[in-house]
Amino acid sequence: MTTSAGDEARRPIVPDERSGVLFPARLERFAANWIAPNPSVSAVVDQYWHVSWDLDEDERLTQRVIDLPAITLTTEEGNVPAPLVVTGVHARAWRRTILGRGAVFAVRLRPAGLAVLGDLAPSSVADSTVALTPELDASLHELMSSLASAADPAAKAQRADHVIAGIVARRSPTQSGLLANALLDELRTRLHERTGKALADHFHCSERTIQRAFAETLGRGPKWVSRRIRLQELARLLVARPDDDLAFLAAELNYADHSHLTNDFRTVAGISPDAYRREALSLLPG
């Protein structure tokens, strides 16, 4: 049996990583996997991921994700809203009711990616999950249609690498997009990194330049992006470290106090941290 490059780059999405998936005990049921993109497209693509499911006839699961600030393009099959979909940056947790059978392959873009691959503005799909049609964006529709016909997730990833590398060769990321990539990497890697002047000094640019880079690529500001990443980490810690109290976690995540952390999490996830922790832990095996 031969192994494709896509197979070699694939790994499961596991419950104790910072994926933003709420109730991560369900990940195994969805056969959730990452596929690493080829380095040739790393300025445009953050990750490929795919999931599949086969639920009982009367079963319905409402899945929520405190997703990374990113535009995501998907090919979808089965009980899904549309065969090709674009999901914008959501202020609250992304939510979908899952039923029947289905499968999704996703291209999660880096901040610089949308302007390279298409003509959509981030604001046009903010807080939305919509069908990707030729009328919405012909270039993105052509790209995702070409992936949809590939046989399996590994083949889709390989085709995406090939097609996107060709696009990047003709249409390079903007300097503002590349700065937004670097800023997001910094905030993901250093959870205690402050925004404002400290972040601007680190990148030797003005605060206005940072605000403009994020606004152009994600439709959000740096403080919002930083808070979103910290809430992703909180979702992970609530399950991975069940004995840590909220005051301790608030301090670790650079919150002034646990009440601010609780309010932010409830606003985004629709549930308090304590209630989420109890429910998420109850779903774990054993």
From TrEMBL:
GO terms for molecular function: DNA-binding transcription factor activity; sequence-specific DNA binding. It comes from the Bacteria. Residues 181-279 form the HTH araC/xylS-type domain. Gene3D superfamilies: Homeodomain-like. Keywords: DNA-binding, Transcription, Transcription regulation. Pfam families: DUF6597, HTH_18. This is AraC family transcriptional regulator. The lineage of its organism: Bacteria, Bacillati, Actinomycetota, Actinomycetes, Micrococcales.
